[in-house]
Amino acid sequence: MATELDEKDEAILQSLEIDSRKGTQAIADSLSLPRVTVHDRIRRLKEKGVIKRFTIQRDPRAVGLELRAFIFIRCERGQVDRRDVAEQLIALPFCIRVSIITGDWDLLVEVVASSMDTLGDAILDQLSKVPGVSGTQTMVSFYEFEGSASSFR
Q: Which fold has domain 60-141?
């Protein structure tokens, strides 16, 4: 069953999405809430699974990985388990997300690379050799825009 979130929960989550290192007191001050209220709500959100973990978000461009692409993958038909293929793919150093999808393709893989040449080599030398991969289609991303689905219901 879905957890109901009120305006205070949403504000706390938004604050943490912007900076997950922000302390409880700083969040409380910015939202004009008591620190204990913020602390209790964060604990409850963690217990209910709304907050999975606190982490950082790396910027691949800051370390020279200027190219981002999405690769549609078709798996061999028959006895191939797409979950097994996905687990092998996410272990590759240039893969940052693998999703099992519906439609004409089986998987969608988000990758980063320093150049088209290194991306091409990674696809030819590593990704296409993963057992179960039978075809790929690559689309390069020109720009990225991020948002929050917190207001989407």
A: Alpha-Beta Plaits (3.30.70)
pLDDT for 57 equals 73
* Residue range(s) in the chain whose domain bears CATH number 3.30.70.920: 60-141
What values do phi and psi take at 111, rounded to 5? -130, 160
Measured distance CA(98)–CA(1) in Å, rounded: 26
Say how far residue 9 (Cα) sits from the centre of its chain.
Answer: 22
Q: Residues 51-94: pLDDT tens digits?
A: 998 877 777 777 877 899 999 999 998 889 999 999 999 999 99
| The architecture CATH gives domain 7-47 | Orthogonal Bundle (1.10)
Q: Which two tokens stand for residue 31?
A: 């939202």
- The CATH 1.10.10.10 portion of the chain extends over 7-47
Tokens standing for 22? 């922000």
- Tell me which residue has tokens 């692409």: 69
Distance CA 135, CA 33 (A): 53
